[in-house]
């Protein structure tokens, strides 16, 4: 396993000696990485290599087979669920809302960790939720039932809820899933702005070109326990991606950055 120092020194989320396993099959072995504040880390790998499981573990939603995850030198299990939710948001790969709620109500749910028990949302909470909807181009959808939204609109709404949460750590499982090219770029620029403002952003992606353009570091998961971590410049190479995806990958250059083509 190799680990190249990222070009950031601010403390963010750290994991030490994590083993991610399913049915005694170790997908990620002894993962020890610091995800810096002020940086985006892209997690890449083939289907079934443990990307989602790793993100769930980093978010404190499942237990690792061994090792720990810490935020501000405290392991996640030392936080109450509400306290952790005030600091860390998680956007799952697919989110189903079983109740006929509106888009504004979903965005407002991101404020719940900050609202005292038996208290209602304030005007400030509503303002933050509306700002989050506008950030993902859903400002005119406040009263729309979630049942009427497309897959891409639901994806952006889930991100709006995370924005309304105002965490210092964003963990997102395929945030560009279901999005058209315009909204893919919009979401990536939005998350880039959150990192530039000092947040820690960790996301899984299937497009190494987007990772190369917007992320600072990349975590490559090979599914056999092996992993690679480092700056995108050093880690996202044609050789590494050919090995990662088990298909020949070519690197091409354009005015806006690097892109990768599988052949």
Question: Can you walk me through this structure?
Answer:
With 263 residues, the protein is of the alpha/beta class. It has one domain: Rossmann fold, CATH 3.40.50. Helix content is 32%, strand content 28%. It has nine helices and 13 strands. It has a seven-stranded mixed β-sheet, sandwiched between helices. A four-stranded antiparallel β-sheet has the order 3-2-5-6, covered by helices on one side. It has a two-stranded antiparallel sheet with strand order 12-13. A hairpin with a 2-residue loop joins strand 12 and strand 13. Helix 3 (103-109) packs across helix 4, helix 3 packs parallel to helix 5 (151-165) and helix 4 packs across helix 5. The chain is globular, with a radius of gyration of 18 Å.
Key structural traits:
263 residues; alpha/beta; Rossmann fold; 4-stranded antiparallel beta sheet; 9 helices; globular; disordered N terminus
């Amino acid at each position: 396993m190799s680990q190249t120092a990222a070009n950031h020194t601010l403390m963010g989320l750290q994991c030490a000696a994590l083993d991610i396993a399913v049915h005694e099959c170790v997908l990620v072995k002894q993962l020890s990485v610091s995800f810096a504040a002020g940086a985006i880390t892209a997690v890449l790998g083939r289907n079934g290599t443990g990307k989602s499981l790793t993100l769930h573990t980093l978010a404190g939603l499942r237990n690792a087979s061994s090792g720990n995850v810490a935020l501000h030198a405290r392991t996640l299990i030392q936080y109450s669920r509400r306290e952790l939710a005030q600091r860390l948001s998680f956007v799952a790969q697919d989110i189903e809302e079983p109740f006929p709620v509106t888009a504004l109500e979903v965005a407002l749910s991101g404020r719940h960790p900050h609202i005292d028990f038996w208290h209602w949302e304030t005007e400030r909470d509503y303002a933050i939720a509306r700002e989050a909807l506008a950030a993902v181009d859903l400002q005119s959808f406040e009263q729309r039932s979630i049942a009427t939204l497309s897959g891409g609109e639901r994806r952006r709404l889930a991100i709006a809820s995370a924005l309304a949460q105002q965490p210092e750590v964003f963990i997102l499982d395929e945030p560009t899933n279901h999005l058209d090219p315009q909204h893919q770029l919009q979401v990536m620029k939005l998350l880039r702005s959150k990192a530039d403002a000092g947040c820690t952003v960790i996301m899984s992606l299937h497009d190494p070109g987007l990772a190369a353009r917007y992320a600072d570091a990349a975590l490559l998961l090979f599914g056999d326990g092996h992993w690679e971590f480092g700056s995108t410049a050093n880690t996202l190479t044609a050789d590494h991606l050919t090995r990662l995806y088990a298909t020949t990958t070519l690197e091409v250059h354009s005015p806006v950055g690097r892109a990768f083509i599988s052949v």
